[in-house]
Design brief:
The structure is a homodimer of 737-residue chains. Chain A has 737 residues and is mainly alpha-helical. Chain A folds into three domains: 224 residues, Clc chloride channel (Orthogonal Bundle); 209 residues, Clc chloride channel (Orthogonal Bundle); 212 residues, CBS-domain. The first copy, chain A, contains 23 helices and twelve strands. In chain A, the strands form five sheets. In chain A, strands 5-7-8 form a three-stranded mixed β-sheet. In chain A, β7 and β8 form a beta hairpin. Chain A starts with a helix and ends with a helix. In chain A, 55% of the residues are buried. At the A-B interface, α7, α8, α16, α17 and β8 of A face α7, α8, α16, α17 and β8 of B.
């Protein structure tokens, strides 16, 4: 801990700021929504329904419009929830701009506007993205308009400005985001652990645990400050369940049923959302006006449905058990009161009556979930209102996810799952009846709503133990841990049989070379070797060579790192290590490093000279996550295809290539080689190669033959599902012939 | 999932049997303790104190004696909690017998006797050990008296009988043990994750999650079956807290204080226990009679103190708030009732009175913890009884841990921490006073007991997020998550400053070559290379050679794996891969594999012939955890120093060495080489080498120079703290000269 105090301080700072941002976001949205409903309720009480409808539409359309405008014209990288991008980044793919300060600001406002507009989406996904952006900005400095100007350039934290620590702080920020959004400190840590499983170390987990604790603490403290005016008592869980029910053996049968349903619908959601996103990428995304108009249209639909649907539903009585003579108290309701507060009367202005559909539709998503999870309110919602909510929410949410505004799918997933569970629970109640005794207290639609939420969420995200912990932290209902675990498992299994997870599908849609935990191919990878998938056209660079030759090599390819070779007495070109393109570039720019040796080692393979070629196709090779000491402060905004950053530097490089003197002046790369680079034999098992690559977080492995000559290189792209599948297919075809 | 159905079925089976064993263990202990207290209570009611004391001592001494006898004469590997052994195994060190069926049976009975005897220890540690033994036995078959007789030799699960899966199932069993012992399914998974961090994959976590769920489910179902006679409702958490208290900002100040105290005493406990264990290893362990007598003596002391101490304490009134006129109701107790059931009257036979010390001492550890954690019972225990309990329990438990009986330190750690916390909480209550309002409900000694337990446990085990989850699962008190996290962190930090964790210290004491998450050395390992620590006297084996030569090489060293080299045209001996000693042995035993070639490649370095040498010093090198297809079913009970398993085989080998014909007959190892073995350059950074080794779970890495010739080998022992420290010191001395 002594050697790493700066890491700890930084973790604390990230936690603090994420917590502050999280509570601010929550409170700002709360205030806007409050004032929106305040105005609507006034009109509702005056029974001015037409005017109310108009006002509601006007407000949500303008908010939706604003949320789209800031994204489309501000920072398109801030669109959507951002979770697929974070997952891709943590997997080792570098993506531009997503953790910039501009993305952070835009995301905040877009999220505020979109959630306040009443669009079917939540603030949790964006909060995770904002958390990781804070992690990046605090630890690496701020960047403005493409140039790093390194404001808070504290000398204290300079040590943290490297690829390896950047990655860790971004993970910590994401974890803190979860901790703050769900008041789930342990869940935040586990979320990052489960998603980034490969690069995990004990020490990092311990630091992120601290970061999440601080974030959760700060959120709680600031929320209490905002709400009560003084730093006071900490609130309970987000969807606190007061009436705990013990779980019971017999409840596991319906739980499995709900799990299967959750998994099925989650797969359907994934499939539908994916196809909508594909359609949107073709038809909406290329047109900025369509991208801005789209949320407004959806907001119009959403609000109109929320206003109109409740009209179709009959009013229901609240206190039939206490007073069975009340109007509307049919035998069905005879045994139940609806004790909960916050019921919407809407058009049911009579005493003791409420409108079930209005209670579900005409409020925020959080409130709806609370209603759905409420215990001992068996008949609060009838099949009609629940099924309507399910159909409307499922289809609209399916469309909403992927639009321009910064919205996440976590709260919607919880809501859809809860409705599903509550419908099933209502069915079980109808079959078994309401029982007061110890044995059958679990027959409660609210309990099944919780199970349904876990199942649907599990089917959508494929999180396992993280989800179990998050559900507990969200609801404080520890007695349901086993049913929740069952639902998560069944939901995940069911969905696994049908389709890949939503996040992974969205990552594929964005064409990120994502490496999953193990390749999704039928064959056993242990039967193949890395030789079967490796890239064979390796560009190597000599340890010692003329300046012009080095410049030629840089110009002839766009690889971000190059294997360095040395020619031995035997004439073998043996592998020495890896050097980064940017380092070679820096060396070539420094004339003082050039040698005038007369007898440098001659390199046999002279790469062909072709200046233009390098500019085609971007290799988004991620630098080795484990990092090496950086010669220069690598600016990751430099398109890697460009030889030089600025026009001036470009001229320098052209000079190196053209002037004859540089054919006689030499440089040695020896001091700058990464001598800790991995090398494997071509006979290395593909399965183990994949594991090595993914577990150690590499960006490339050099393949050397038994004389230590470079025969190939395995990069991230060689190991994607697509590529392995294709290569293995080719091999099969060859052997079949 | 389709390809791996056998893994899933096995995980389910392990979960089921661990759960069954866990509930049986719990219930058997409960029955014995119940009958013990039943007899004692009868005598107590008759006021026959002398007789009662005698009976209590007789019962606990005989039980303690029995628990020691089964271990010492049955299976010494079953002694203690077994957690350090499991940690060492999961770290990659192979230890003999600890997962055998004999160890399982002995552990069960020893644990039952020891816990029933009232020794200060718990059944949770042994349960984890038994869980992993079940994982091993179910997946790998049963072994009796040293020979594998492969009962349940289902053809179905033959595929699972390899090093890699064995390791996973043992991990799963350990996790299921935690899940069953603490009714903490998620905690079980996280425990294994946090302890074995390095070899973790997503898929494994997902399977262990399932295994833990099944274990927890089975435990609950069987417990309800045993208790009520029918498979019924699931019980709550182990130490269920009904009266939840919201956490509040101001409570974090005393929480930090309790955290520091917990950490300090945890460090003291570790130091004291370690020194007692060292003393015991010298003076008790070598003498079987002493090892058996020791627990009986401790049981005598423990029982005597439990019987006598309550005599020293005054009786206290129970219902002063309701009826302040009761005798003993001083103003101090005026505002509090003691609502809890289960108070011991002991000698306080008057109505409405109880003996605080008897309530704490004269019962089981679990009950004591429940009393300590109880809320709204501010003045139930006075300083006197709490401090006495702390002193007695701390010192006796410190001595008890490490004796022969199978006892764990988890419940004692919770108990000691709870006392500590309750003392602090009583202090806070005395300062602040009892408040009914929302603001200061946290001023409750029971709440602080929970915090203290977390802090002490954290200081002892250095678990972080796992502990937070386990504490929640143990008590159902989610509102205290943030204070618990704070206490865990502060406790761990404090203890980290003073001493290494108890488990790691015990592992060091057993001389296991344990690899911690990162080496505990001052220097930055990135400044050194693997060349600085690698072993240089590598014994290589030629790819093709005479039978006699191969036999000589096997006889000349005791390495468990050997690098295979091939001589190239240039005369270089290039590295081809790794072969296991046992595989070479199997090849040499099969005469049909021998070739009569006339012109085999000649090997330059011919190792010296020395038969006896190999029998010195055992290298407990663990086979590569990632495993390679096994030629033979490796029996891990074979002492690796022996050239052959049986006398007959030994003769075969001697024949190979001595008969002249075998100098003319050749074998090729080529088809049996592990060609996926790791190789690194001598210039590889030591830090990255350590990470590679630990993260990929290797047992050795071959170091090759730039011609691919073997120049060294890095094994587990080269990377232990001790060795790195020593080697770096040597380098420093050399550079200083």
């Amino acid at each position: 801990i002594k050697r790493e105090w700066d890491h700890w301080v930084m973790m604390g700072l990230i936690g603090f700021f994420v917590g502050m941002l999280g509570s601010t976001l929550k409170l700002v949205i709360e205030k806007i929504v409050e004032s929106k409903f305040h105005h609507i309720t006034i009109l509702l009480k005056k029974e001015a329904f037409g005017l109310m409808w108009f006002l509601a539409i006007a407000m949500s359309m303008s908010l939706a419009l604003a949320s789209a405008v800031v994204v489309v014209y501000g920072e398109p990288a801030a669109a959507g929830s951002g979770i697929p991008d974070i997952m891709a980044y943590l997997n080792g793919i570098s993506i531009r701009k997503i953790f910039g300060s501009k993305a952070l600001v835009v995301k905040f406002f877009s999220c505020v506007f979109a959630v306040s507009a009443g669009l079917y989406g939540g603030q949790e996904g964006p909060m995770i993205h904002m958390g990781s952006a804070i992690g990046k900005i605090l630890s690496q400095g701020v960047s403005f308009s493409g140039k790093y100007s390194k404001i808070p350039d504290f000398i204290l934290f300079k040590r943290l400005r490297n690829m390896y620590d950047r990655r860790n702080f971004i993970s910590a920020g994401a974890a803190a985001g979860v901790a703050s959004a769900f008041t789930a400190p342990v869940g935040g840590l586990l979320f990052v652990l489960e998603e980034i499983s490969s690069f995990w170390t004990h020490k990092l987990a311990w630091q992120i645990f601290f970061c999440c604790g601080v974030a959760s603490f700060t959120t709680q403290a600031f929320t209490s400050l905002y709400r009560t005016g003084s730093l006071g008592s900490f609130s309970r869980a987000a969807f606190n369940i007061d009436q705990a029910i013990n779980s019971q053996l017999t409840m596991f049968l319906p739980t499995v049923g709900v799990g299967i349903m959750g998994g099925l619908f989650a797969a359907l959601f994934t499939w539908a959302n994916l196809n909508i996103c594909k359609w949107r990428n073709r038809n909406i995304v290329p047109r900025p006006w369509a991208r801005i108009a789209e949320p407004a249209v959806v907001a119009f639909l959403t609000t109109t449905l929320a206003v109109l649907i409740p009209y179709l539903f009959e009013c229901m009585p609240t206190r039939c058990k206490k007073d069975p003579s009340l109007p509307g108290c049919t035998p069905r309701y005879a045994s139940s009161d609806v004790p909960e507060e916050g019921l919407m009367q809407y058009t049911c202005q009579a005493e003791g009556m409420y409108n079930p559909a209005a209670t579900l539709f005409f409020t925020t998503g959080d409130r709806t979930i609370e209603h759905l999870l409420s215990r001992n309110t068996h008949y609060m919602f009838d099949y009609g209102s629940l099924i309507t909510l399910f159909v409307v929410y499922f289809s609209l949410c399916c469309y909403t996810m992927g639009m321009a505004p910064a919205l996440g799918s976590m709260v919607p997933a919880l809501l859809i799952g809860s409705v599903l569970g509550r419908i099933a629970g209502l069915g079980v109640t109808d079959i078994v009846g309401i029982h007061e005794g110890e044995e059958l207290t679990w027959v409660d639609p609210g309990g099944f709503a919780l199970i349904g939420a876990a199942a649907f969420f599990g089917g959508l995200t494929r999180l396992t133990f993280t989800l179990a912990v998050v559900m507990i932290e969200l609801t404080d209902e520890t007695h349901f841990l086993l049913p929740i675990m069952t639902a998560v498992m069944v939901g995940k299994w069911t969905a696994d049989l049908l389709i890949d997870s939503l996040y992974h599908k969205l990552i594929d849609l964005k064409c990120f070379p994502f490496l999953s935990d193990e390749p999704h191919v039928e064959e056993c990878l242990d039967l193949y070797t890395v030789e079967d998938v490796m890239g064979r056209d390796v560009v190597t660079i000599p340890e010692i060579g003329s300046v012009a030759l080095m410049a030629h090599i840089l110009a002839s390819c766009n690889h971000r790192a190059l294997p360095v070779v040395e020619v031995t007495e035997n004439g073998n070109e043996v592998f020495k290590g890896i050097i980064l393109r940017s380092h070679v570039f820096s060396i070539l720019a420094k004339e003082s490093l050039f040698l005038e040796e007369d007898n440098p080692v001659v390199v046999s393979k002279s790469p062909s000279f072709s200046m233009g070629e390098g500019e085609e196709g971007v290799t988004n090779l991620h630098m080795e996550a484990l990092g090496i000491a950086e010669l220069v402060n690598l600016d990751d905004k430099m398109p890697v295809t460009l030889l030089a950053k600025t026009e001036g530097e470009r001229k320098v490089m052209l000079g190196r290539l053209q002037a004859a003197e540089y054919h006689r002046r030499f440089v040695t790369l020896a001091p700058y080689i990464d001598q800790s680079s991995y090398r494997i034999a071509p006979t290395f098992s593909l399965e183990r190669g994949f594991n090595l690559f993914r577990t150690m977080g590499l960006s490339h492995i050099t393949v050397v033959d038994q004389n230590n000559e470079v025969v190939g290189i395995v990069s991230r792209k060689d190991l994607t599902n697509m590529n392995i599948y294709r290569k293995l297919e080719e091999i099969q075809e060859r052997t079949d012939e």
